[in-house]
Structures are given as C-alpha cells and as structure tokens.
Amino acid sequence: MEMLLRLTGDLSDVRGRVQDLEDQGVAATLESLDTKVGGLKETLAAVVEAIQQLQAEPEEEEEEEPDWPGTTPNWTDDLDQDQARELWDGLTEWCQNKLWPIYVQDVWKPCWYRHMRLRVELTWVWRAYEWSYEKGKGVPPTRVAEWHVRWVKHIEAVLKEELKECGLPRDGLPRPKHRVPLPQPPTEEDETPAPPPFRVTDFVDPTFFEWVEDNIRKRRPAENSEDEKAG
Questions:
Q1: Looking at CB atoms within 10 Å, which of 51, 98, 143, 160 has the fewest?
Q2: Any alpha helices (H) in the chain, and if so which ranges?
C-alpha cells in the first residue's frame, strides 16, 4: 500500500513537471509570435507612410499637345532683326521647296517678297501646312484635305490678285509695277543675245537678297545684340 501511494505521488509529480514544460513551450511560442507580429506592424506602418507621402505629392501633369497651329508671326508687328531674319528664312524655305514648285508655280511672280499682303497671307498658310503635316501621329487626314481643298485655292487667288500688275510688259500693262525683262530677239549684229537676268518663271529676282537684308536692317536690333554691345 505504501508503494502504491509512493507511485501515485511520483506520477503526480511527473504530470506537474510535464505541465510546466508544456507551459514553458507555449510561452516561448507566444513570445516568438509577438516578436514577428511586432516586425510586421513596423513594416506595415512604413508602407502606409510611404503611400501617404505619394498621395500628398502633386502629380506632374503631362502637357498635352495643343490642337491648333500655334501663333503665326505677324509682319506688321514690331519684330526685331533676329525675329525678322528667322521669319524670312522659314517662309522662304517653305515657299521655295513646297508651295512654289508643287502648287502655285503657274501664278507665281519673282517679286512676291515685295508685297506685304502676300507675306502676311503666305505666312499663315505656311503655318497651317505645318499644322496639317508636322504635328506627329494621330493627325486626321481631313486636316491635310482641308489645306489642299481650301487654302491652296485661297492663296492662288491672292497671288493672282496681288501680282496682276507685275511681270512682263503686255497689252494693257505697258509699265508693270515690278517689271520682268523681256528676252532680246536676235539681230543681224547679235544673233545670240544674252538671256535676261531673270525670267517670270523664276522663284525670285536678283534683288531678293539685297531687299531682304535691307528690310531686316531697318528693324530694331534684338535685345541680346544690344546687351553684347553694352558688354
């Protein structure tokens, strides 16, 4: 009987120790979980803070390309010498390479640059052309169609009207405003006369460059030119 009581006591002691070990394991596990949860909380807090900062920063808006040709330089404005030269260069290049040889050669006269109204009209037709062809992808073909159907006819009519009193001497116009020299017929003394200095079918007459330089020179100096002189 005494031995049974001793065994019962030992068994109870063993159970107590097992319970202590189990309690210690649970405590360690809970402590480990607390550590991991704490780390996750810190990570989550950092993520939330980063998102809040991104939301607080203003987003940079992409500049949309305007659906219009932009401003057209006006010859009647107070252009300085640099602006005038840039305008002359751009308009002349476009007229010589695009408008004149392809669209309006039949109604063109080499004195066109002397006519203020023509310069004004040609400039906006040039900018409308660039708007139709040179603004990247997504441009509807109707924009190009409008330029050909509408504005080519318009500038043809303006050229005819503005240049009607210029060119070769002819019946009803013995003294043209801007005269194109007639070719000299061969004679007994000179069977092969020299050709005239320019023809009515030329893009410009020989005085073009001198006339343009004079037009630029009469304008006010550019601001940067004045600064360079002062320096």
A1: 51
A2: 2-56, 81-94, 116-133, 141-146, 152-162, 208-217, 223-230
CA–CA separation, 186 and 226 (whole Å) = 55
Cα separations (Å) of 133 from 23, 100, 154?
A: 83, 17, 19
Is residue 101 in some structural domain?
A: yes
> Using CA atoms, how far apart are residues 213 and 198, in angstroms rounded to an integer?
20
Give the separation between CA 109 and CA 162, rounded to whole angstroms: 10
Q: Is the pTM of this model over 0.70?
A: no
**Residues recorded for the chain:** 231
pLDDT tens, 137-153?
677 888 899 999 999 99
Number of structural domains the chain divides into? 1
Block residue for tokens 């305008």: 87
pLDDT digits (tens, 9 = 90+) for 48-59: 677 777 777 655
The boundaries of the domain holding residue 104 are 81-167+199-220
The contacts of residue 129 (CB under 8 Å, 6+ apart) are: 94, 98, 99, 147, 151
